[in-house]
Design a protein that fits this description.
By secondary structure, the protein is an alpha/beta fold. It has a six-stranded mixed sheet, sandwiched between helices. The protein is 51% helix and 11% strand. Strand 4, helix 9 (140-151) and strand 5 form a beta-alpha-beta unit. The protein has helices at 11-25, 35-45, 50-53, 60-69, 79-84, 87-92, 104-113, 117-126, 140-151, 170-178, 195-207, and strands at residues 54-56, 73-76, 97-98, 132-136, 159-162, 185-188. The protein starts with 10 loop residues before the first helix and ends with a helix.
């Protein structure tokens, strides 16, 4: 196999060109409004299934970009997801990045109540008095509790990115988010997802600002 000689600053552009070429060979045409998000998920994972399994509510990308432009903050369910966010760009827009999973009060309350830290971290986020995008890439319990908080009227996210990966309660948790009629969402279908996917969706939206 021939090794390409390519300048470091050209690697990303070449990667996206390869992705577009292979999608064309597969006969896949991406919806223009969602293409940037889908392409970045494929670029992050090298998994072309994301061309088919990402589910977008109407105008989800447009609404997510608009929220970020207005200074919306992002809540993640893992430090890995938090670490992967383009925080410099987010902060330039007036937003913050939050992850409460490692907070001592969250851990203590979760132990006392016999529930996951992920669920308690969603409750702590819901108490923030600001516009929020939730980017969930690991814990279905975070997604389930977020759904409950939305239904209880305790939080109204500007966008929910539902991309927990795994086997236990992952599919039902994602379906709960898809059942929300008035909350924009981007859902990674099936069992696939991950903190890296949740972060890269956020970064694709940030690049659109």
């Amino acid at each position: 196999m021939k090794i390409e000689k390519i300048r470091p600053e050209e690697i990303e552009a070449r990667s996206f060109a390869i992705i577009r070429e292979e999608l064309e060979d597969m006969g896949i045409r991406l919806p223009k409004e969602n293409a940037a998000v889908i392409l970045r998920c494929i670029h992050t994972s090298a998994d072309f299934d994301y061309a088919r399994n990402l589910v977008f509510s109407p105008r989800a990308v447009e609404q997510g970009v608009a929220a970020l432009r207005e200074g919306c903050s992002i809540v993640t369910d893992t430090r890995m997801g938090w670490s992967g966010l383009n925080k410099k760009r987010l902060e330039k827009l007036g937003g913050k990045a939050y992850c409460f999973m490692a907070d001592t009060d969250v851990a203590r309350e979760a132990k006392e109540r016999g529930i996951t830290r992920a669920a308690v971290s969603m409750e702590k986020a819901a108490a923030l008095e600001e516009d929020l995008i939730f980017a969930i890439g690991n814990a279905p319990t975070a997604l389930i509790r977020l759904y409950e908080l939305i239904r209880e009227g305790k939080v109204r996210p500007r966008l929910v990115i539902a991309a927990p990966v795994g086997f236990v309660n992952v599919l039902p948790a994602k379906e709960l988010i898809r059942s929300l009629a008035d909350i924009p969402y981007i859902v990674a279908g099936g069992r696939k997802g991950g903190s890296n996917i949740a972060a890269c969706i956020c970064n694709a939206l940030l690049l659109g600002t």
